[in-house]
Specification:
The protein is of the alpha+beta class. It folds into 2 domains: 229 residues, no CATH class; 102 residues, no CATH class. It contains 12 helices and 16 strands. The longest helix is centred in the N-terminal third of the chain and has 25 residues. The N and C termini lie far apart (73 Å).
Length: 357
């Protein structure tokens, strides 16, 4: 019953969210000139305000719906140490030992390197921050009976000070193993076990995970970025290079405001497919002939450019380029192949066996 209530509640909130306009500052992140932040300068500056920072805490569930939280005054003194101390220690000590910052997409994680990616690259993180920046007053306050602590995926601490131009955000995953609802646990009090008498309990992880400064997301944990927001920077970078190869080999005509990169964002299957495609293996004429042969509708404009009106057209184009459509020579039926493994040509060592030789 509680599960059904939460599902319905989430559905209602998501419907509401889709009707809300995106804030100018987030939309502009893709259009305004990108200005790289300096985390070392930030750390040196924030130290002077360390004991005066305001921390607001939000939870978000696996569907990206965000909730405000209430907390007692006794917890206020825990917020800054829990969300900021370890990050400051890591950055300030790293400045003395040669810590460098590198774009997440450029290389794998290694010692003494802090990785960073543009916030605009991580669509699901931008969506969570959109709620916080523009719809905070309309958010519901988290209540375990209505929302269930075990369905919460992550926590966002918005940290601000009157002397700072903008707040920054520290994001942590909420592991299920660190959550407990009431009526199922025991506590120790005065040397003996007693029933757990709270609605729920949670332990916020104290490790460094993700932090957003203006247009940048600093990635202290690559695994947390992927598990929280489904973003694999390496995969996305490879896909972007493949997009450049496609644009160099094919003439494409997009509907106003659309691009290949914009259309593939968030489409895991398409991104994975792009990583494996050899954009030079097929000409545009061959691709269009193939589309006609297998009955896939893809049109060209008067100049001969392939028309991409929406995501469906792009998926058809990528599938054709990846040769995912076939026609059975036996039945004449046409299929879309979800996965395939090329047959290998026999090597010199795999000569045909001839009996008696």
């Amino acid at each position: 019953m509680a599960q059904n209530m939460e599902d319905q509640h989430t559905t209602d909130l998501e419907k509401k969210a889709t009707s809300l306009p995106l804030p100018t500052d987030i939309l502009a992140a893709d259009e305004e000139p990108y200005e790289q932040t300096d985390i070392f300068q930030w750390a040196n500056n924030i130290v002077q305000y360390k004991d005066e920072l305001k921390v607001d805490l939000f939870f978000f569930n696996r569907n990206g719906v965000v909730y405000r939280t209430n907390r007692s005054a006794e917890l206020n003194k825990q917020m800054e140490p829990l969300f900021l101390d370890e990050i400051l220690e890591y950055v300030l000590s790293g400045a003395e030992t040669g810590l460098t910052v590198r774009a997440f997409e450029d290389a794998e994680a290694e010692a003494d390197v802090l990785q960073r990616t543009k916030l605009s690259n991580v669509e699901k993180a931008r969506e969570v921050l959109r709620w916080i920046k523009t719809q905070e007053a309309e958010m519901e306050i988290f209540n375990d009976e209505a929302h269930d602590i075990k369905r919460m995926k992550g926590a966002v601490a918005r940290i601000s000070h009157e002397q700072l131009d903008k707040p920054f955000y520290v994001i942590k995953q909420l592991p299920a193993a660190q959550m407990m609802s009431g009526k199922v646990g025991w506590m120790i009090r005065n040397g003996k076990f007693v029933p757990f008498d709270a609605e729920a309990a949670i332990r916020i992880p104290d490790d460094n995970q993700l932090m957003v400064l203006d247009q940048d997301m600093y990635v202290f944990s690559q695994a947390k970025l992927k598990s929280l927001f489904g973003y694999d920077a390496k995969e996305s970078y490879i896909a972007e290079q493949k997009v450049k190869e496609i644009e160099a080999n094919f003439r494409l005509s997009f509907a106003d405001g659309l691009t290949i990169n914009g259309l593939v964002k968030g489409r895991k299957s398409t991104i994975k497919k792009l990583q494996k495609i050899d954009a030079g293996i097929m000409t545009q004429e061959q691709l269009m002939n193939h589309a006609e042969d297998v009955g896939v509708e893809l049109m060209e404009d008067d100049s001969g450019a392939i028309i991409i009106m929406d995501e469906k057209d792009l998926v058809k184009f990528v599938n054709l380029l990846n040769e995912d459509y076939i026609e059975s020579p036996v039945t004449g039926l046409r299929y879309e192949i979800k996965s395939k493994k090329p047959l290998k040509e026999p090597s010199d060592k795999e000569e045909e066996f001839v009996p008696g030789l």
